[in-house]
Hints:
Elements: E1 2-7, H1 11-17, H2 35-38, H3 53-62, E2 75-83, H4 92-110, E3 115-121, E4 133-134, E5 137-138, E6 151-156, H5 167-170, H6 173-190, H7 204-268, H8 270-290, H9 308-383, H10 386-415
Antiparallel strand pairs: 1-2, 2-6, 3-6, 4-5
Helix pairs in contact: 4-6, 7-9, 7-10, 8-9
Amino acid sequence: MNLQNNKLNEIGHMLAHDKHTNPNVDPEKESVIDREMTKLNQNLFERNDGLTDKEFVEKAVKESPTAEHWKSNYNALSTWCIQIPKEFSGSYEEKNEIFKEMVNFTADRYGRDNIVSAWTHFDEVRNREGIEKENGKSLIPLKEREHCQDHIHIRYVPRTEDGRISTKEVTPRKELRDYQREMQQHLREKFPEHAHELNFLNGATKDKSKDLARQAQLNHEKNLEEKEQLKQELEREQRRNERALDKKEKDIEKKQEKVDKNIEILNKNKEVIDQTREAAERIKDIRVVYFEMPTPIEKGFHKGFYTKEQVEELTKEINKAREQARTIEQGREIKSLDERLQENSKKANENVKDKTIDRLREENERLKTYEKDHNFCIWLDKNYNVKDIKKEYERQEKEHEKELTHTRTHTQDRER
């Protein structure tokens, strides 16, 4: 039991081949078809719309809401290929009854209006490679060769409820497992006399689930290691940030101490500043009284006179005023620098805090995902036996490879 999806440009030859009635096929090249058995094939889902299978699929694509954006690599047709188990002992009629129930089950699941066809094949021969030939003709008659398992191709358009065509939405990975299990359970209930023979879960599905479980377990362990590494990295980064913040705080404290000392000095020198202001006023008065130039008389200038003591006192006051002005200016620069440092430190702390919160949120989301994967692994371990399923899966893989080789050889012979 397997599902195949096909693009629109691939379905023409495949749909035409379903009937196995092409008259232009060379019997020697078409050696995989036993023509005497072809009459047993039939289509168990006949439509009454007057369209060919290909026209039906093309019409569904055109009526899709996304037809304007349709691309050539989009899948337009899905096919469930289901084989009757080897151990089934029923007759041809009983096989057809089982096939009809498969069609009804699929139509109810994906929509009866979306079913394209349901062809049964009783005439396919398994071996094409390794058959001895003489003068280009097979030595082993078709009747003596091993026939393939009787099977049915249920083809349908994977259409969603809103009319879009999407294999990802109609048949996701979970649907592949559910369809096979529910199909098997449904057939066993419908045909209880053959329930022990209707084994469609051939091990591949179970083994794939186990492989997924194992892979999920490995991913979980890997994620735990990554989580631990990320946690250690975050802790190291946090310690680095804390050390950087401590250093900045110490630098700010030192600068704050300098500012406080300068403010204290300014407060202590308040009297000196006041005296400087008074001296400046006195200098202004002195300049007005003693340094005003007289009007010129005749050809010479008459200059004013002042004592030596007055000059010395004036010079001292000026020097004191200059020193106090320098001290005040330095205090202002230090205060401005301290404000800028505090602002930059605040921004740095906010950036570190925001980044830490974002990373913690991401880690929380990842932990939720890890928890889901872990629960899924526990469920799978409880419900399946890994060793038995793995052996069955390897056996099924070998059979699948033989079928693929058989199909490729058949296609090459037809092309020749």
